[in-house]
From TrEMBL:
Source taxon at top rank: Archaea
UniProt topology in membrane: Multi-pass membrane protein
Cell compartments where the protein resides: Membrane
GO cellular component: membrane
Keyword Secreted tagged: no
InterPro entries the record matches: Lycopene_cyclase_dom
Name the record gives this protein: Lycopene cyclase domain protein
Length: 260
């Protein structure tokens, strides 16, 4: 049976209108982020989203983790619909334009304690390790691949700026929560309409309000990537003057280590 709304129709109905409104507000509001710094960060995030997510979807779709309803997509490249690649671009824009409404900044140095960096890296790699174990079972296959895929990025982000992210945690939570909840609703509607179907065999079967927990986790993790990445990108540009002194400190520490 042909679906009543196509995947492209989801973009037109649910993604583009709020994206355009938020982009207009960010450009008009004096207190909102706009300009070269945040927009260049957004461009980088879009590029990374396309590059990093493409292998994941092209692995999970042929594995039968999810599929699309009859007539729901226009065409596919590799195993992934064109509309999915389009979403890799639209989601970062939607989330970023919301983040721009409530900039998350703090006056913190780029130099953070080594223990914090190790904790961040260890936390991300632990998530990846758990994911690797879960990929061995059919019912946890989707969940496992999400965690395995997410862990390395979280390790990099938390290793670089865990202390700073904690300092701006309140606006950070708001910046992540709102687009995540909105995309949960959109995803739930799309599943109900049969635009895409999530495999029962490759999920754990826990679906609050009809939304598989794996789908909920996907939007949470991807928005976490985007918001954390943009916030730390702007932070880095604001503190770029510290980099030469940090490099000198690192060189001295390395020299002392060699002497010992």
């Amino acid at each position: 049976m042909t679906v009543p709304l196509t995947y492209f129709g989801v973009h037109l109905t649910f993604i583009l209108p709020p994206l355009l409104i938020l982009g207009w507000l960010a450009r008009r509001r004096d207190r909102a982020w706009w300009g070269v710094r945040p927009l260049s960060g957004l461009a980088i995030m879009i590029g990374l989203a396309v590059v990093y997510t493409t292998p994941l979807t092209n692995h999970l779709i042929p594995a039968g983790v999810w599929w699309y309803g009859e007539g729901a997509v226009i065409a596919t490249i590799w195993h992934t619909p064109i509309e999915e690649y389009t979403f890799f671009i639209l989601q970062p824009m939607l989330t970023a334009f919301w983040l721009f409404q409530l900039p998350a900044t703090a006056d913190r140095s780029l130099a953070i304690p080594l223990t914090h960096r190790l904790l961040g890296v260890g936390g991300g790699l632990s998530i990846a390790g758990v994911g690797l174990l879960l990929t061995a079972n059919s019912s946890t296959y989707y969940l496992g691949w999400l965690l395995l895929w997410a862990g390395p990025i979280l390790a990099i982000q938390w290793g670089f700026g865990l202390t700073y992210l904690w300092a701006v945690r309140r606006p950070l939570v708001a910046a992540i929560a709102v687009p995540t909840i909105y995309l949960w609703v959109v995803d739930r509607v799309a599943i109900e309409l049969g635009i895409w179907v999530i495999s029962d065999a490759h999920t754990i079967g826990f679906a609050p309000l009809g939304l598989p927990v794996e789908e909920a986790l996907f939007f949470l993790v991807t928005n976490l990537f985007l918001v954390q990445g943009l916030v730390m990108y702007v932070w880095l540009l604001e503190r770029v003057h510290e980099l030469p002194s940090l490099t000198r400190v690192a060189t001295r520490l390395a020299a002392r280590s060699d002497e010992r």
